[in-house]
Structure formats: structure tokens, C-alpha cells
Specification:
heterodimer; A: 387 residues; mainly alpha; three-stranded antiparallel beta sheet; globular; B: 505 residues; 25 helices
């Protein structure tokens, strides 16, 4: 049993996602494309992933080696024959659990070679034959991993909800924590940094989802999502001082420096490390789409943090603290202030930035009017019925 | 037009068309317009199914030899189009092996041969008009505009002379095509007089559908030549019939919106265009919806609001609305440089859509938005910096632009002329003024009003109850009276006999 569980965990091969993504980037960012290609092909051939092999060759315009393709197809058909025989045997001779094992075998096979539709079908069949909650959840988690592998967001979402529903009734904490990691990863994909941060930090003490990514990556994701969503106090408590994070944070370049320079208000260093992290984000599949947003949020946090201490500060000294030019700073500040993200006003004639304390009463009043008026319009439309 | 045999589908269509003709006859005989309406409603489907062969067959069989309609239509769709394929059919029968399906097919063919022999003679002008209309549609499909024009003019004369109200819907359709064909052939200017006189006649005759169609044709004509004044005069002097078809109403709103936009009445224009969009069909009519969306976007920008992103997100229109989307982004960010770039790049598209002149007016809006953004970000800023930020050409004009903006109420500021900067007024503490009190008071009053009206309207059942009570009491009174009567009767009766059953009370 355990052996199968382990096997199930290893499919599909998640490293392939990262390699494939790197291949799609520009040559100058990713210089070692040849190595990547070899790695991908090696794994594909090792696991006899015929459909994946042909798909990947088509996508990147590599030549399909007929020989390899034929050998792969042959081995696939042989294995499939063996598996089908096993299923027949167990259906005739053995009991429920043997039948289930045989089906699980077949579904794992399809999942491994990268055949999405058949794999999903067979997983559903196996699911119907499975009794224990833990095994059911394992199957759902494999389906979620397939969703990550094939970029199928709806697949991920449906299976996440079903898995959570099943786990509510059980007290299997290990699986519950693993599902949290999956959920966090999914939120990260959808740019919901705060939710992702909460999920990751909840499960950081008991991280066991090694099949998705290793511990270092996990710390990388947790820190990045929390640095952009938590205020200073929480950041300090949960991230900067957290022992679990401290163990692995050194392995990611620039990450701990980013964190600490923000907390210690060393803004010049902060910017330097931010740029480095930004470059790093380009190479990560789910983070690369959000890197501009991330950078913008970090800048807003830095500027607001800086301006909190001052009533007014000259543009010159602010520019020096951040290590940027005055024109750049002016452009940034005007953009964020008119977007309502920073509460300040620039006096360009005097070269000063004056902060305006957000008056919550006035803000609240404006909010009420802004939100209330459309609602009153809708009530008015309903009121027409009365006459 | 090739000579081909009629396929079985064609035969079915012919059968349907003959049914239509009989419906039209029924409509005139029984003086019920709904059959006519039904036939015309199916026109768009019928239009797709007809071809020259069907028409030739129909014309030959349905019209009398001496009718003028027939003589004209026969020149266009001669009966030689149809081969008499009887011999060929016999050959086929011998070749076919006896299989079930083909047996059935033969049975069908037999039936149709029989049915074909049912000839319906077109005796009413409605049917002739219908045949004329079908031929017209077919000619337009084949892009044979010369013949179509001839047929149109014949049809117009024909229908006008008859002056029957049942022919109104045909009349309107013919006029629509008349106007459209002339537009394609480039003769729009010449037909204006005719359209106007036809409009006058149709108003006199209370021909609602033709009125609507003619107003729309005239407006379209004027807009083609940018005669917005004349269009406006037409609108003010005429009254668009309120009980016209929805499709005509939508067109009218669209033209109205466009004219109002040119005349600087942006709010009214926006309202018309929005209504036109709402009433237009959801799917289909893609060209119309596209044009309405484009104008909606521009007019909304001219009123000072930013259109919602859903406007650009309709799946089949998304590609074509891309230039407008970029334009909106440039206006939203107040970026004059981007705005100029987009206008230059997409000038051809805008000119084709006839939105170019409206877009040039947007330049002011871009500057206004830009100033508003500066207002929120800066407390004081020099003119030079403003000209750099807004990418205006000279810093001298900046001062005048700013003063105009302050005068228009776009921004709240003071210009310091000697030191060449502008100082924006602070928003200040609203709560220290009476403004919040007034605003809240207004809204609370409004809500209470609605509450009171709602409560009043819910009292209705109580009144019913009251009425019920009244009725009950009245009945009770009557019953008492009768009781008294009976008792007096009893006394007068003087006897111990039973006065019938007590239930008689």
C-alpha cells in the first residue's frame, strides 16, 4: 500500500513544469537551454512519457526522434497490456482492495506518461472504488497536481473544494496541512497574496508536501507573499523571527536581506535587493506574471513606511535615502498619490513632500456617499413598482 | 444563373412559399392582419432559402399571364431556368436498387410531384407585392443592383397606386431597400425629394411602418453627407411613430444619438445610444452593435466619464474595439502624448467609423484629466513642470489652459502669476462644514419617503377588509329587517300553524 502511495505522490513530475516554463523565456535570460532540453528529454524517456514527448517536441519545434518515439510507444503498449491483465485477474480472483490497487496502477500509469483525459477518467473510477478517506484525498491531490501540471485552473478548484469537504469530517492533520499548501500555491497563482501567505504560514511548522516543491522554495513563497501583505508587527512576529523560516531563508539569495532591510528601514539596500528578487521572479512560473504588481506593492509599502515618520520632507533628502534621482521619485510619488495609495502631497515649487494624515471621519463620509448613492438609485428603481 | 434541376429542399421551399401566399389571401379575405404579420416575420428565414430557380417556378405558376408584375419578373427570372427534369427522374428510378430509404425517397418525390400541381393563383395585390419583395431580396443577394432598382421603382408605383393599408408593411420594406440600393449605387442625393414626399404621403395615410422607415432612411441620408442641421430639423419637425417596430425604433435612436453628439448635447446623445444598445438584438446585427459601442465609448468620454471595461469585452467585438480601448486608456491617464500617438496611428479606422471629428474634441478631456491628476498629487507646481508632465507644447499656453480649467470648475486652484506656479486648494475638513449634514439629511429624507410610500401601499388589504366588513354589516341589517317582517307577519297570521320552515327566513 505504502509503496503505491509513494508512487502516486511522485506523479506527475512537477520539475517538468519549471523546466518547460524556462524554455519559453528569452534566450538571454535563460542561457542554459540546451541543458534544460536534455533534462526534459531524459525525464520523458525515463518515465516513457509518449504523449508528453510528442507534445513537447511540437511546442518547441524539436525534431521528433522516430526511434525513441517508437521505443516509447512500444514500452507503453507493453506496460498497458500487463496492467490490463492484472486488472482482469484481480477482478476475477481477488477482493475489493486488490481491484482498487490494480485500477490505481493503471491511473498512475496514465498520469505518469502525461495522458490527461484518460488519467482523469481512471482516477474517477478508482475514486469510486476507494473507501478510506486518506486514500481518497490522495487521489484528489494527484488530480490537483495534474491541474497544476496542465494549467487547468478549474480542475484545481473543483478538486480543492471536494478535498476540503472530505477532510472536514476527518482528523487527518497531515493531509489537512498538505491541502493548505496546495491551496496557498493556487492562491499565489491567482495573485491573492494575503490568502496565500496565511495558508503557507499556517502549515509551515508541519510542511510535508515535498512532491509540490521542496522546503526552500516553500520558504521563498511564504516570505514573498507575506512581505507584501502583512503589516510590520505581524511580519516581525511571523516571518522575521520565525525559526522555521530562519533555517532555510539563507538558501535563497537576497531574500533575507530584502526582509531585514525593509524592517530596518535601510531603503538603499532594500531597493538593491528588490531588483535582484524581481529578476529572480522572472524565472519562476507562477510568480513571473505577478512580478510587476509585487514590485509596485513593495515600493508603495516602502514609501509609506518612510513618510509615516515625517510631516514634511524635502524631495532631495528622500531621494538620497532611497538612492534614486529626484525626477524618478517625483514620477513615482505623483503616480501613487493620484492613485490614492499614499497620503501625501508634493509641493513641487518648494521641493517638499507634505504628508496628510488620513482623516478617517472624512474618508468614511466620502465612502458612505460613494457606496450609498448607487444603492439609493437601485432602491429608487424598485420604488417605481409601488406606484 | 445556372440552369439546374430543383432539389428536394427547393421543392419544400416552394411548397412553403405557396403556403405563404395562401396565408396572405386568407389575411385579406378574413381581414385579419396576423397572417400577414406571420408571413413577414419569417421573411429573414425565407430570404436565405430562396434561389432564382424557386422564384422562376413560383412566378410562372402563381401569376396570371396578363399581370404587369409577371411580365417584369419573368424578364428577371425566366422560366427557362428550370429544366423539366421528368425524364431524368425516370432514369434514376430504374437505376436505383430497391432499398428501404430510397423507396421512401421515391415516395416523397411522388408526393411532391403531385403537390407541385397545386397551383395558387395570386389574386390579391398583397401576394403580388410579396413576390416582388422576394425577387427584390434575391436580386440584392446576387448584387444585381440595376435590376433591383428597376424592380423597386415598379414596386413603389404599384403599391402606391393601390393605397391599401394591408400593403403598408410591404411598402416600408420596399422603401428600405430602395434607399439602400440607391446608397450603394451612389444616387442618394437624388432620392431625397422622393423620400420626403413619400413621408408626407405616409403621414397623411397614417402608415406607421412606412413613416418610421422613411424617417430612418432620410436621417441616414443626411448623416452620410454630414448634413447634421437638416437631420436635426427633420427630427424636430416630425414625430417618430411610437408604435413602430422595435428594429426601426432602435435605428432611430442610433441616428438621434449621433446627431446630438455632433451638436454637443452629450448627455442626451449618451442616453439615446445606451437605449439603442439595450434594445438591439443580443447576438447578430454585429455591425450595428459594433458601431453603437464605438459611439457610446466616445460620447461617454466626452461627458467626462470613463466607460466601463465591459464595453470592450464583448467577445465578437473585442478585436474591433481595440483602438477605442487604447484611446480610453490614454484619456484615463491624462497622457496627451499617448493620446496623440493613438489618434495618429488609428486615424484611418476612426475616419471610416466617422468618429474622427468627435475624437478630436477629446483632446480637451485629456488635458482636463491630466490636470485633475496633478490636483490630487501636488499642492503647488510650476507651469514648466506642468507642461513637461502633460506634454503640452509650450509653457505659456499652460497658464491659459489652467485658468480655463479653473473657470470651468475642473480644478480648484489659485494661479500665482509672478512666480509662475499654480497652487491647488486643499480639500480641508469637510466635517467642519455643514455639507455632511445636508447630504445626509437629503438621503435620509429620501429613504423615509420611500418607506412611507411602501407602508401606504401595503395598507391596501386593510381597505379590502373594511369593505368586507361593510358588506357583512349590510347583509346583517337586511337579515334583521326580514326577521322583523316575518315576526310581524306571524302576529298578523293569528294562528298556530307553522309558517313553513324556519329556514325561509
Amino acid at each position: 500500500m505504502l509503496e503505491e502511495e509513494e508512487q502516486l505522490k511522485l506523479t506527475p513530475r512537477m520539475e517538468l513544469i519549471q523546466y518547460k516554463f524556462l524554455m519559453t523565456l528569452d534566450d538571454e535570460i535563460v542561457p542554459n537551454k540546451k541543458e534544460l532540453k536534455e533534462k526534459i528529454l531524459k525525464i520523458a524517456i525515463e518515465d516513457k512519457m509518449t504523449p508528453y514527448y510528442s507534445r513537447v517536441c511540437e511546442k518547441f519545434g524539436w525534431e521528433v526522434d522516430e526511434e525513441t518515439l517508437n521505443t516509447l510507444k512500444k514500452s507503453n503498449t507493453e506496460e498497458l497490456k500487463k496492467i490490463n491483465e492484472l486488472i482482469k485477474n484481480s477482478e476475477e480472483n481477488d477482493g475489493e482492495s486488490e481491484i482498487r490497487k490494480a485500477y490505481l496502477n493503471k491511473s498512475t500509469f496514465y498520469c505518469r506518461i502525461g495522458e490527461k483525459e484518460k488519467a482523469l477518467e481512471l482516477f474517477n473510477e478508482t475514486f469510486n472504488k476507494t473507501v478510506s478517506i486518506g486514500q481518497k484525498v490522495d487521489l484528489l491531490m494527484t488530480k490537483i497536481r495534474m491541474g497544476f501540471f496542465f494549467d487547468d485552473i478549474s480542475l484545481v478548484e473543483t478538486n480543492l473544494t471536494s478535498a476540503k469537504v472530505i477532510l472536514k469530517k476527518s482528523s487527518d492533520w497531515e493531509r489537512k496541512n498538505r491541502i493548505k499548501v496546495y491551496e496557498g500555491y493556487h492562491c499565489l497563482k491567482l495573485r491573492q497574496f494575503k490568502k496565500a501567505a496565511n495558508f503557507f504560514l499556517d502549515s509551515i511548522a508541519t510542511f510535508t508536501a515535498n512532491e509540490l516543491f521542496d522546503y526552500t522554495k516553500f520558504v521563498y513563497y511564504s516570505v514573498l507573499s507575506s512581505i507584501v501583505s502583512f503589516p510590520r508587527t505581524e511580519l516581525k512576529k511571523k516571518v522575521i523571527d520565525a525559526p522555521e523560516i530562519l533555517t532555510a531563508i539563507e538558501e535563497v539569495p537576497h531574500l533575507s536581506e530584502l526582509l531585514n532591510s525593509l524592517y530596518d528601514c535601510q531603503y538603499k539596500d532594500f531597493y538593491r535587493h528588490l531588483i535582484a528578487i524581481y529578476d529572480g521572479m522572472k524565472l519562476n512560473k507562477i510568480l513571473s506574471e505577478h512580478r510587476l504588481f509585487f514590485c509596485k506593492q513593495m515600493r508603495i509599502i516602502a514609501y509609506s513606511q518612510f513618510l509615516e515618520a515625517y510631516r514634511s520632507v524635502t524631495l532631495k533628502s528622500m531621494a538620497e535615502t532611497f538612492g534614486v534621482s529626484i525626477t524618478f521619485l517625483d514620477k513615482e510619488l505623483s503616480r501613487f498619490i493620484s492613485g490614492g495609495k499614499i497620503h501625501a502631497k508634493i509641493d513641487k515649487v518648494g521641493g517638499v513632500v507634505e504628508t496628510t494624515r488620513a482623516d478617517s471621519r472624512n474618508e468614511g463620509y466620502k465612502e458612505i456617499i460613494k457606496i450609498g448613492d448607487p444603492m439609493l438609485n437601485r432602491i429608487q428603481k424598485l420604488a417605481r413598482i409601488l406606484n | 444563373m445556372e440552369h439546374t434541376t430543383l432539389s428536394s429542399k427547393d421543392l419544400i421551399t416552394i411548397q412553403d412559399l405557396k403556403e405563404h401566399l395562401s396565408l396572405l389571401q386568407k389575411s385579406v379575405d378574413e381581414d385579419e392582419s396576423r397572417y400577414l404579420v406571420r408571413v413577414l416575420r419569417k421573411l429573414s428565414i425565407t430570404r436565405r432559402r430562396i434561389n432564382p430557380q424557386i422564384l422562376a417556378k413560383l412566378i410562372e405558376e402563381s401569376l396570371k399571364e396578363e399581370s404587369k408584375t409577371k411580365s417584369l419578373l419573368v424578364t428577371i427570372f425566366p422560366s427557362t431556368l428550370i429544366k423539366e427534369g421528368k425524364e431524368e427522374e425516370e432514369k434514376k428510378e430504374m437505376q436505383i436498387e430497391i432499398e428501404k430509404e430510397e423507396e421512401e425517397e421515391e415516395e416523397d418525390k411522388e408526393k411532391k410531384k403531385q403537390q407541385r400541381n397545386i397551383i395558387i393563383q395570386a389574386k390579391y395585390p398583397e401576394e403580388k407585392a410579396y413576390l416582388q419583395l422576394l425577387s427584390l431580396l434575391q436580386l440584392c443577394k446576387l448584387k444585381d443592383y440595376e435590376n433591383a432598382l428597376k424592380l423597386c421603382e415598379f414596386s413603389i408605383d404599384f403599391i402606391e397606386k393601390k393605397n391599401r393599408r394591408t400593403l403598408d408593411s410591404f411598402f416600408s420594406k420596399v422603401f428600405f431597400y430602395y434607399s439602400r440600393i440607391n446608397e450603394i449605387l451612389g444616387h442618394s442625393k437624388q432620392i431625397r425629394k422622393k423620400l420626403l414626399s413619400a413621408y408626407r404621403t405616409s403621414t397623411l395615410r397614417r402608415d406607421v411602418s412606412t413613416q418610421a422607415v422613411l424617417i430612418n432612411c432620410l436621417l441616414r441620408n443626411y448623416l452620410q453627407f454630414n448634413l447634421y442641421d437638416q437631420g436635426d430639423k427633420l427630427i424636430s419637425k416630425s414625430q417618430f411613430p411610437p408604435n413602430s417596430l422595435n428594429s426601426q425604433h432602435v435605428r432611430y435612436l442610433y441616428y438621434l444619438g449621433r446627431i446630438k453628439a455632433i451638436q454637443l448635447d452629450y448627455t442626451e446623445s449618451f442616453r439615446c445610444l445606451r437605449e439603442a444598445k439595450r434594445k438591439a438584438p443580443r447576438a447578430g446585427a454585429r455591425g450595428f452593435r459594433l458601431s453603437v459601442n464605438k459611439f457610446l465609448c466616445i460620447v461617454q468620454l466626452l461627458t467626462g466619464e470613463i466607460p466601463e471595461i465591459e464595453l470592450f469585452m464583448e467577445k465578437d467585438l473585442q478585436k474591433y474595439l481595440q483602438p477605442y480601448f487604447e484611446l480610453t486608456s490614454a484619456v484615463r491617464t491624462g497622457n496627451l502624448g499617448d493620446f496623440k500617438k493613438v489618434v495618429l496611428r488609428e486615424a484611418k479606422v476612426f475616419k471610416e467609423d466617422q468618429t474622427y471629428s468627435l475624437i478630436l474634441r477629446l483632446r480637451q478631456n485629456v488635458i482636463k484629466t491630466g490636470l485633475k491628476k496633478l490636483n490630487s498629487a501636488y499642492s503647488r507646481i510650476s507651469f514648466e513642470d506642468i507642461s513637461k508632465k502633460l506634454q503640452l507644447d509650450s509653457s505659456d499656453s499652460v497658464e491659459s489652459i489652467c485658468s480655463k480649467a479653473i473657470f470651468d470648475g475642473v480644478i480648484d486652484a489659485i494661479i500665482n502669476h509672478e512666480e509662475k506656479y499654480i497652487k491647488f486648494k486643499e480639500m480641508g475638513d469637510l466635517y467642519s462644514t455643514l455639507i455632511p449634514q445636508k447630504a445626509f439629511g437629503q438621503r435620509i429624507k429620501f429613504c423615509l419617503n420611500i418607506h412611507n410610500t411602501a407602508v401606504k401601499n401595503m395598507r391596501f388589504p386593510e381597505e379590502l377588509l373594511k369593505e368586507q366588513e361593510e358588506i357583512d354589516t349590510e347583509e346583517g341589517k337586511e337579515q334583521l329587517k326580514e326577521l322583523e317582517k316575518m315576526s310581524t307577519n306571524n302576529e298578523e297570521g293569528k294562528g298556530d300553524f307553522d309558517q313553513g320552515e324556519p329556514g325561509n327566513l
